[in-house]
Amino acid sequence: MKSMNTRSLIFGATASIALGLVLPPRAAGAISDSDFNSLSNLVQQLNERVQALEQTHARDQQVHARDQQQIRQMQQQLGQTQVAVTNAIQQAQAAAQVQPTVPVPSGPSASHNFTMVGDAEVQYGKVDGSHGSFGLADFAPIFLYRAGDDILFEAGFDTTLSDNRPGSTDPGASTSFDLSFGQLDYLLNDYVTLVGGYMLLPLGTYTERSAGWLNKIPDDPLPRGVLPSNGAGVQLRGSVPMGQTGQMVTYSVYGVNGPSSADGTANADQLDLDSNVGFDSNGNRLNLHGSPSGGGRIGWFYPFKPHYDLELGVSGQSGTWDDADQHLWSAAVIDAAVHISPYVELKGEYINSWAETADSGTIHPRGWWVQGGYKLAGLNLDLPVINNVELVGRYDTVNDGLGTKTDRYTVGYVYYFTDTLLFEGDYEFPSSNDPDQAHNQYVFQLSYGF
Length: 450
Fold this sequence. Notes:
single chain, alpha+beta, Porin, 19 strands, elongated
């Protein structure tokens, strides 16, 4: 009723005002049809405006009611929060009263974690003139432990099952368990890492990046045999970015015990590249020669665009190797790798070494290798089996410095069941002035990386 009365009053007042405005005083007694129609239209328009104002007013009242309801809800939630905070404070005060008077040392950082990665292989091969057989069963776990944001520890082992040679005093199968590396890494800053322990040496890139299942051919390049793979010592390594294009310079500088002499002499056939770890067979601490070896690598990585990049590196090592600390062993390596699209990869190394000996003068074990791969997925044939195949090839050559020279051509494939499960196969064509090395062979290997 209040709304209807208000509307009637507004309508009446509006009509009176409209009549007063439209009609002059002397014409109020005689209204024409056109004047009446104009007046009716004006009144109708004013009535519509009044209705619009009433609707707006009603909406404002609804919004105001919702706001009041939300305010009441927030006040209720605030009261509940205050109660919870009060309870938490009381509980914290009670817990503080039962704490020991002597502070308990805190435990290790919550950022530490432990991971095991690695690879496993089984290999079948046949050399011309001999029976085919499963010649390798290998399990190589790598244990990674992160003690904090800056401290890491890593250790790799190589467990291999093999047959003893016929006629051995201990026939049957034997299992070897070797430490490949075990090192502590301390991140000094974003550009420098301190490494200490038994390390993979950065002489070239093969040992750190391509050995094991990462290599797309089941065996190692021949000239890698003239270099040590590991060493006990310390190392500084890292990388420095160059601009915003992704270019970087990588580096490593290290000192290790270095190669040694198997019998303590400096005879050429007694050069032992890997075993000098600073302990004798009885566990006594010593270095088999007085001076450690020093070495390092510097590399340049240049990405053109995604999947297109080039890397070049130069590395070397030098130090005495005999017990009398009088004969020098040195090595130099040039390495290169290029990726052209996701499907083409080329890489290789040139290796040269020098060893001063007591019986043969200075010998020069040396060699080089180049390896390429092409993934058939680059053909865009939309064939699942073909798309999982990568064709590989390698040429390697080595001169042992003692008169034996061997060249070898290898062709093969990699079939990718998954990114980490690989079935590899190759056929090798060696030629050598040593008859024992000049036998063709094929090798198949199932590899799994985890």
